[in-house]
Amino acid sequence: MRAVILATLFIFLWTAQGFCASFNFKASENNLVKDMERVVFTFTYDPEDGEPADKLEIRLDYYGDRENYKTWEFEPQPGTTLEHTYTMVYEKAGYFDAEATFFLTWEDENGETETDSEDLGPVRINVANWKFSADGTLGCIESTPAVSGDGRTVYVGSEDGNLYAVYTRQGYKKWLFSTNGPVSASPALDAEGNIYFGSEDGHVYCLEPEAGAMNWQFPAAGQPGRGHFFSSPALDEDANNLYIGSADNFLYALSMDNGETKWQFRTDAKIISSPVIGHDQTIYIGSLDGFLYALNPDGSEKWRYDAGCRIEASPALDQDGSIYVGTSGFRGEVNDHNGLHAITLTGKKKWFKKNINGFPAAPIITEPGIVVVGSYNNNLHGINRSGKRFKRYSTFSDDLVSSPAFGTYDYIYAGSKDGSFIGHELRKFDQGDKRELWKYQLPHPITASSPVIDSGFLYFGTCDYDHGALFSLFGSEGGKNAPFVESSPDSPWPHARNGSANTGKTSFTPETIAPAITSTNPAPGAEDLNLERKSISATFSMPMEPSSIYRPPMPENDDEGFYGFTVEPFEAPEEDFAISWNEEKTRFTLTLPEDVSFEPDTEYTASILSRAHAEGDKERSILYTYDWNFSNPDDKGPSNAHDAWSCFVSTLFE
């Protein structure tokens, strides 16, 4: 075991009688594997000027729990230094803070027995469930692991050109499959356990799970080696399709049965981002040409969104079909176009949060609706669905180029190139609390390998030049009463590639997708409002319940008026305004009364409240209150004078 000095604690103790001594407590290793590797604690007692102690007792609390102690007693010889070592194996995964207490006993000048003590520590010991390094020959791991449906096997690619199958219980190799190039992308698993992945040798492979035998292989563009695959596959088993991007600028659609090409779509630059699949089988793929493309299942283009900068990582899909994707410059180059984009399912911009350092990894979406993403400037960012800044977690000392993961109990996990792997409670993240709940300090960087949570454990890889390891860590803070952490079942997108099988497909269906606002008139941010217009409208992605927006005045209805919609700064009797719907109930129009008009040089804010819900289905409401502004600041158009009562009361049911 390679000895790494974690900490040396050196303290001098002076007593009232002039007794002086120094103590040294150190650990030989701070990264261990449970039941396998050992840590050596060294205790040193060095009497200084004055009389030495008659008796020295060392008490080691090696779990830091005030319960598990190891105690030694010594009679130190005058004028000599006492050194003692203790070796132990940790049988539990997690982290532990070892502490030592030195008790000294001596006889003072009056013959009275004196006792004093000094606490040293804590020394943190990180204990992994296991690590797999293929006897030290494993190459750098930038691939995100995938876990089999039964939880017994984890699959991961390596820069050494192999795909490895590893038993999750003990971390032993099950089999490996060799390609002729690095495997930096993530494997994806279908319902039968078959493994699909691309290699930088220009091939896509399909393997069976038992022994890793090859079912089929596909060469990009029919020519081996022409297109390197840095992209991870997305699987649509309903359509029997696999989608994967290539460095030859193409997105390929392959048959999952035999790898034959169904269609291919060309972009204007390399594709190193990985595709994802929406609830309606739309395929979303980013390219280094700066566009996010939405494609129909037949390969035809649905729309494209200009992100203004390179897209290197996968998008994340929300419950209402919204798409979140980050942009970044080449190798972290600072750029004003770097940031996080929120895009509607019709390809329109919802909002953009600039971060000049860029977001090289895929975002995730937590169950409370916070989009979390790591950046090149050492930070983990949280932004809510409406695009308002949430918080920034900044205790890392190097870039976060892999995605975080979101687990039960609102735990966020993220790794950095500084080798730190941190667990944090989302609630404290919200409050700006910088103290981590859980930290494992690795001796090697965590680069592009994103953590996956499965059966209470976290799996991810490290990369140190040509060498790496696959780690399994206990997914909690390590205490004896620690909760059992799983991937959050309520999150729309808890991991990179969504689930632990890395399929890249949303778990929502057309029957469970949430409503979304697809367009408004005036458009968000419009500054050329025609002051003569008499209406505004909003269009939804599905039929809506009209009464969740407006309840017409009726004698027997106390719950009447504008229930889920507001416009400010209108303040007037509600009966003066009218709401009408199209036949499909997907678009409503607010019409102003005759004596009310839009004012020049005024900014209006329209809001559709989150209580607005799908027709007959209160459980399927929009995910957040949707706001948009419009104005005519240049004082264009005719005067709109009207009396003080021609307003719209917009805040009834608070």
Describe it.
This protein is mainly beta and 654 residues long. The chain has 3 domains: 8-128, Immunoglobulin-like (Sandwich), CATH 2.60.40; 130-474, Methylamine Dehydrogenase, Chain H (7 Propeller), CATH 2.130.10; 517-631, Immunoglobulin-like, CATH 2.60.40. The chain is 1% helix and 42% strand. A 5-stranded mixed β-sheet has the order 3-9-8-5-6, with no helix packed on it. The protein has a 4-stranded antiparallel β-sheet with strand order 1-2-4-7, with no helix packed on it. It has a 4-stranded antiparallel β-sheet with strand order 10-41-40-39, with no helix packed on it. β5 and β6 (69-74) form a beta hairpin. The radius of gyration is 31 Å and the shape is globular.
Tally of helical segments: 1
Proportion of residues in helical segments: under 10%
| Outline | globular
**Radius of gyration over C-alpha positions, nearest whole angstrom:** 31 Å
Identify the CATH homologous superfamily of the largest domain.
YVTN repeat-like/Quinoprotein amine dehydrogenase
Largest sheet: 5 strands, mixed
CATH class category label of the largest domain: Mainly Beta
How many separate structural domains? 3
Percentage of residues in strands: 35-45%
Distance between the termini: 63 Å
Structural class computed from helices and strand pairing: mainly beta
Question: Would you give the CATH topology of the largest domain?
Answer: Methylamine Dehydrogenase, Chain H
- Label the CATH architecture of the largest domain: 7 Propeller
Given as residue ranges, the uncertain stretches (5+ residues, pLDDT < 50) are 1-18, 637-654
Q: Quote the average pLDDT.
A: 86
Kindly state the number of beta strands. Answer: 52
Q: Strands across the major sheet, in which order?
A: 3-9-8-5-6
